[in-house]
Amino acid sequence: MKRFASLFAAAGAVAAISAFAFAGGASGAGSLPTLNIALNGKTGITVSPGSIPSGAVNVVATHTGAGASNASFALVRLNPGVTPQQAFQAVGSHHGDENALTPYGAIVVSANAPGAVQTVLTPGSNWFALNTTSMGKPGIVQFTVTSSSSPTALPAAAATEKAIEFGFNGPNVLHDGTTVRAVNGGFLVHMNDLIGVKSKAAGQKLVTLLRAGAPMKKLRPFFTKSFVSLMDPASPGALQQQVLNTKPGFYVQACFMNTQDGREHTQLGMERLVQVKK
Prior knowledge:
This protein has 278 residues and is of the alpha+beta class. The protein folds into two domains: 2-146, Immunoglobulin-like; 159-277, Cupredoxins -  blue copper proteins (Immunoglobulin-like, Sandwich), CATH 2.60.40. Helix content is 15%, strand content 43%. The chain has four helices and 18 strands. The protein has helices at 5-22, 84-92, 200-211, 216-219, and strands spanning 34-40, 44-48, 51-53, 55-64, 72-78, 105-112, 115-121, 124-131, 139-146, 159-164, 167-169, 173-175, 179-184, 190-197, 223-234, 239-243, 249-254, 271-277. The strands form four sheets. Strands 3-9-8-5-6 form a five-stranded mixed sheet. Strand 10 (159-164) and strand 11 form a beta hairpin. The longest helix is centred in the first third of the chain and has 18 residues, at 5-22. The radius of gyration is 18 Å and the shape is globular. The two termini are 31 Å apart.
């Protein structure tokens, strides 16, 4: 996954800003409670309100200060009795592998900032928001999800893209301006990214090269500047949705997480060609 970090930083920032500007058009967004995530620099983070009802929510993230080109955040739910220190130690002892978090909790949302996504939160005081902009230890703040007697339902999405081991389920034609839901339906941590390519033929070639584990210099000629993160690394069962706001054309859908032997999930079949239409 590390070799794609610069690609995500360059293209992802543009995609995130566009998605944020369009987020108000999400179906039902205005009727959902809003959780505001304010990132400052590479580690600063605040959450407001500090307590929010369970059910569907609109998560709106902003960013100020250094690191804007690669700003990101995550919402993590820890199991009862688990401390953030225990969770950090588990991941750190496995060389940063987010799968090591699964026995202790879950990455429920993982997205760029600025941006807005919708998700569903369950009751508990063991919720944490993380500023994951830096490659180092993230900034962290706790918030509470109170139990609602009538939780707000998540608005319907026009399409659902599901990551599994090792591939994707869902339509291979998406429509710009519609709400797209991303779900991790596997047992491992997955990503769900759309990488713009110059043509259908370029996309087919890129799929072949990714499956073969080709180096970046062989991949770069096929890219455009369009990039959409439907879901950054997130735990099994994670669900988030957003309004798709990108140029029509062909994209390669991919997951760049690493296996224990160092191979990327793309080498195991987690890439396919999709098309975005108006």
